[in-house]
Amino acid sequence: MHHTSPSGLSLPSPSRRTLLRGVGGAAVLGAGIPLLSACGGGGTASDPKTVTVGSNASDAVPKKAFADIYAAFKKESGLTVDVNTKDHNTFQEQINSYLQGTPDDVFNWFAGYRMQFFAAKGLATPIDDVWKTIEGNFPDAMKGLSKGEDGKYYFVPLYTYPWALFYRKSVFQEKGYEVPTTWDDFVALCKQMQKDKLVPIAFGDKDAWPALGTFDQINFRANGYDFHVELMAGKASWTDAKVRKAFDLWAEILPYHQEGATGRTWQDAAQTLASKKAGMYLLGTFVGQQFTNEADREDLDFFAFPEIDPAYGQDTVEAPTDGFMLSKAPKNKAGAVQLLEYLGSPAAEEIYLKSDPNVVAASTKADTSAYSPLQKKAYEMISGAKSLTQFMDRDSRPDFTSTVMQPALQKFIRDPKGIDSLLSSIERQKKTIFASS
């Protein structure tokens, strides 16, 4: 989210991104240049007492949470974790050249398709030995998300979070709104909010990934999990009538979305929910990072995206899962394996969650007693889901998502007419991209 998001951590403004790209482009992430050992003549890189980690956790909250984990790990193991933090978006854009160069021992990444993509390219080391130690900590859905197409493990999940519709309890109480469970109720609520002079759905798509989440929800609610997965994997066609139906449904609620979305960041959109100018906001639970006032945080609640087709109900939950992978030729493999085993422990998750209460543990063994009501609800929503998706830019090829889907959805948001030609164009480009290795 993404990001993207999905990860979904905050992304820089385009100006900063262009700036970073301008400063020696790939060198920012060290394509072919060892990130920290470049100046030290490789001193730290092969030190048996040091494990290097390439991190995309550039936001203050997750950055501190990871630092706390590494400090605890050092106490326990005597190993120092040397972290290279890069801006979240830049890390994502340059991951390919980074992994082909001389990457760190361990790197932050995403579960599911995104992990499988690099595992299949031989840019990661299988970690079945790590899983022998940690497998009892995770439910089957998480194990599935951590395996490559070859059936080997390549990923240690740390935390996860659902996407849902967020709202302020006090606003719903004051206006007498009910949580909608069906599409018709949802549209009716949007109309009522508009009458009440609220922006029904806060929306900011300046960084182009939030809209991917809106499409996902509508598509798997209208067409089911299996079709959604096939579409993401390039197997179903974007000109299929089912996809057209999803866009028609979106066009129906687009007028209730905050105007000028392509010029607004997700953080600014979150502020309109915080200031009670907007009634609802579809995002991951990381939206809570923007609610810095305790009273506002306690007023925040969420509900699952409403049912569209009773055959699929609200079975699917979009729950991006973040964690770690082992690079292709780690300099300190023994130390890296020790770190990964620690990261797969309930102790590591509990430390992370103390600093970042906007997500929930991927492990079923982590202590949930300190969870806020919002976290408890998120945890129940994920553990109760029939199917979990990871978010469009993680469930599909990253190059397809960034070069085709992000601009296409921004075009649709600015002008929802001409859906058919837009879908033909997406399908044409999809065929080209998925045909390449």
Automatic annotation (TrEMBL):
Listed InterPro entries: Bact_solute-bd_prot1, SBP, TAT_signal
Record-linked Gene3D superfamilies: Periplasmic binding protein-like II (3.40.190.10)
UniProt name for this protein: Sugar ABC transporter substrate-binding protein
Superkingdom, taxonomy of origin: Bacteria
Phylogenetic lineage: Bacteria, Bacillati, Actinomycetota, Actinomycetes, Kitasatosporales
